[in-house]
Design goal:
Order of helices and strands: HHHHHHHHHHHHHHHHHHHHH
Strand content: under 5%
Shape: rod-shaped
Family: Belongs to the prominin family.
Helix content: over 70%
Radius of gyration: 50 Å
InterPro entries: Prominin (IPR008795)
Structural class: mainly alpha
Number of strands: 0
Membrane topology: Multi-pass membrane protein
Subcellular location: Membrane
Main location: membrane
């Protein structure tokens, strides 16, 4: 009778792991460039980085989120670096431009009060033309620069306003709480699916352990229990016993005693095979699912994973989803408040846009005035020269008319000077308003750049800060004892950044118990098999079989029968030697087999986890969208806008000063020339 190896000859495949994650969905994200491309952006970013560090942002966030009410009083707020820096920038800029305006006023008044006589036109004509041409070219260049800046700033202001309007709506209606809540539901579903695999009702882990244990114990039975040798020896003895029966049946001198001995040998041989099948039945019982003790140990190896998943699912359900549902009732801003904020945002952007455009059109108007007066002066000079040539032939009536016309021109010139001074007053008012808005943009730019640098470069502060704000005192309830939540989440962020599945580090501590329990379950199963081997070997009497063969050999003189009996005897001796080897060996599993089984089982569990949960458990799509809104669009759009406004106002004031002085001078030249000619006409009259 051959040894029964039915369960050992069956290959149990590993269970197929269901795919529950989004392996095909991999959000992409461009790198954040904090400097920008324009010169104003490069200068602004360099100043912000040198004067406003991430440590300042950390201090501001800690102050704003502090429970101490005194931390938000006026002295504490004004001591914050961005606010202090904004106050300094606004004060210096306002002082600078007001000083420039006052200097322009003083110079213009001085020029107006001085009644300089105009020298002979023919001697100074070339020098005055040269000065006028230079002034016109300088004012033209400044005007073109101001117009270019006006278009650039107006475009960015309009873009920023439109972006803020759209982003407020997007954030309030889509990102929070809807998108975040939907992702938390998706993550919760994956976690519950993974948790179900560690439950007794699930068979995937147990089936995988049976497949791996069967493969490992096939090797153990061959190496430690010499199963192949025993099986081959028993099969050979079966064949030799059958052949011996045939030879004895053909022998004419065969006696009933010989037949009885052969039957007894055959019976004992069958009983030996049955005894040896008992230890193998332990492994077959485990494979067939009848050994629940081993199954319990395997499931217990994932108890820490189950405990961790339970903690996370409870946090998601109780602290987040129950608070966020229904989505429409838990928005950051109610619908009416959102409409008001968007309205005032658009209104502020429109007012700033109008101020910038109106303010920027002054150089064009001023340059036009200069050109017109320049042409008028040439016309007057030509008229006066014509008068000098024809004054001897003029009548008294025409001379009186000229005098009356010149008096009107002088009055018109003085009126124009007064109007230019009056018009300059609202220009100063608009200038002050733009300076205040520029200071606001400066503060927002500092904070936006600092916040984005903190988000991209300072995970060691941002992660603990967010954990403390989101979880508060419940942060210790998220992780199993012995694990630090901040260190764990920093590692998760690093894994997400490098596109490594977070479970490789997150569940590393949880799977350490897997090593111990797999080792324990294998040794426990091996102990059961070994004990049964010892019992079976003790019940088998090889010496009795050999004695029966010796007695049988003495009954025959046939060489063929004696040779066959000798072959059977050698087989029994071989079996006896293997039994002695089993009994003498230490009943432990070779370490390499245990380690290989543990590694295979851990790989399978990790594949199960990675196939069930997304590579990154964070809402990457939402985080990337928020980062694009805040850093790639808003911060990039507003970056350097304050500096562009500063240069815009500087060139505008310089253009107004230079152009205004030129206008005043040309008006005074015209007025003095007209006065001189009036005096001349009066003397002649």
């Amino acid at each position: 009778m051959a040894l029964n190896l039915t369960c050992l000859n069956v290959t149990v495949p590993l269970p197929i792991i269901p795919i529950g994650n989004n392996l095909t969905i991999s959000p992409t994200h461009s790198n954040y460039d904090p400097y920008g491309k324009a010169i104003s952006q490069l200068i602004s970013s360099s100043l912000a980085r040198s004067t406003f560090s991430t440590a300042d942002i950390e201090s501001i966030l800690n102050t704003l989120t502090s429970d101490d009410t005194n931390s938000l009083n006026l002295p504490a707020l004004t001591s914050m670096k961005p606010i202090k820096s904004t106050i300094i920038y606004g004060s210096v800029t306002l002082f600078l431009f007001l000083i420039l305006s006052l200097v322009f006023y003083c110079i213009s008044c001085t020029n107006c009060c001085q009644a300089k006589s105009i020298q002979d036109y023919s001697r100074s004509k070339q020098r005055k033309c040269s000065r006028q041409c230079v002034s016109v070219v300088v004012i033209l260049l400044i005007g073109l620069i101001v117009l270019g800046q006006m278009i650039y700033i107006a475009y960015h202001v309009n873009r920023t306003t439109t972006f803020l309007d759209n982003s407020i709506q997007e954030f309030n209606q889509e990102i929070y709480p809807k998108e975040i809540g939907l992702y938390l539901e998706h993550l919760l579903q994956q976690l519950k699916m993974l948790d179900a695999y560690s439950m007794p009702s699930s068979t995937i882990i147990i089936d995988a352990s049976r497949s791996m244990f069967l493969k490992s114990f096939n090797k153990i039975l061959k190496e430690q229990y010499f199963l192949n040798i025993i099986q081959q020896t028993i099969s050979s003895n079966d064949m030799h016993i059958d052949e011996l029966n045939t030879l004895i049946g053909q022998e004419s001198t065969s006696s009933p005693i010989a037949t009885s001995i052969v039957d007894e040998i055959t019976k004992q041989h069958e009983e030996m095979a049955d005894q040896l099948a008992v230890p193998l039945a332990e492994l077959c019982a485990f494979v067939d699912g009848k050994d629940t003790d081993i199954d319990a140990i395997i499931l217990d190896s994932l108890s820490l994973v189950h405990e961790q998943i339970t903690k996370i699912t409870n946090i998601i359900e109780i602290d987040f989803l129950n608070y966020m549902k229904p989505w429409e009732d838990h928005v950051l801003l109610n619908q009416e408040l959102e409409k008001q904020i968007r309205y005032y945002t658009r209104l502020a952007g429109t007012i700033l846009l109008v101020l910038i455009i109106i303010f920027g059109l002054f150089p064009v108007g001023l340059f036009t005035v200069i050109i017109l007066y320049h042409c008028r002066q040439r016309h007057l000079v030509s008229k006066y020269r014509s008068r000098d040539d024809d004054r001897q032939s003029s009548t008294r009536r025409s001379q009186s008319s000229i005098v009356h016309s010149d008096f009107s021109s002088e009055s018109s010139t003085n009126g124009t000077i007064c109007w230019l001074r009056i018009i300059f007053i609202p220009v100063i008012i608009i200038l002050v308003m733009i300076i205040l808005l520029s200071s606001l943009f400066y503060a927002v730019d500092l904070f936006a750049q600092g916040a984005c640098r903190t988000a991209h470069e300072d995970d060691t502060f941002l992660i603990p800060f967010l954990i403390d704000e989101l979880l508060g005192s419940n942060s210790s309830d998220v992780m199993i004892p012995g694990l630090d939540i901040q260190t764990t989440f920093l590692k998760i962020v690093d894994d997400c950044r490098h596109e490594t599945h977070f479970s490789r580090h997150f569940f590393a501590s949880h799977l350490r118990r897997l090593h111990e329990d797999v080792n324990k379950s294998m040794n426990q199963l091996n102990d059961k098999i070994g004990q049964q081997f010892y019992v079976s070997i003790a019940a088998i009497n090889i010496q009795d079989d050999i004695s029966l063969l010796n007695n049988l050999s003495s009954l025959f003189s046939s060489d063929s029968i004696r040779n066959k009996i000798e072959q059977i005897r050698e087989g029994f001796k071989n079996l006896q030697q293997q039994f002695e080897n089993i009994t003498a060996a230490t009943p432990t599993i070779p370490l390499d087999i245990v380690n290989q089984t543990i590694d295979n089982f851990e790989v399978y569990v990790r594949e199960m986890i990675e196939s069930t949960i997304d590579t990154c458990p964070l809402p990457l799509a939402t985080i990337y969208k928020t980062d694009i809104f805040v850093c790639h669009e808003f911060a990039a759009t507003i970056n350097g806008l304050w500096f562009s406004l500063f240069l815009y106002m500087l060139f505008l004031i310089l253009g107004l000063a230079i152009g205004g002085l030129c206008v005043y001078k040309q008006l005074r030249v015209t007025a003095n020339t007209e006065s001189r000619n009036i005096d001349l006409m009066r003397s002649q009259f």
